[in-house]
Amino acid sequence: MPHYHINIFWDDTESCFVAEMPDLKHCAGQGDSPQEALEEVLESRDAWLDACLSAGEEIPEPKYSANQRA
Q1: Of 13, 21, 35, 59, which one's alpha carbon is 20 to 30 angstroms from that of 44?
Q2: Are the C-beta atoms of residues 43 and 21 closer than 8 Å to each other?
Q3: In this structure, which long-range contacts are made by residues 22-25, counting pairs with CB atoms below 8 Å and at least 24 apart in sequence?
Q4: How many structural domains comprise the chain?
């Protein structure tokens, strides 16, 4: 399975931690702690990839890297 970058941050609006995978559109999770948000996004990733495979779509290659410069 490809290794996708994960961003984890605090969301003041939702009052929770959010974890997202920029390479997988709308793939995110949230929780009361960074660990909970991470666990949620990993479950979301698995469901996202399963849905992609079931639909016969290609799994995207990781493109985002925390080391990229704007």
Answers
A1: 13
A2: no
A3: 22/64, 23/60, 23/61, 23/62, 23/63, 23/64, 24/48, 24/49, 24/60
A4: 1
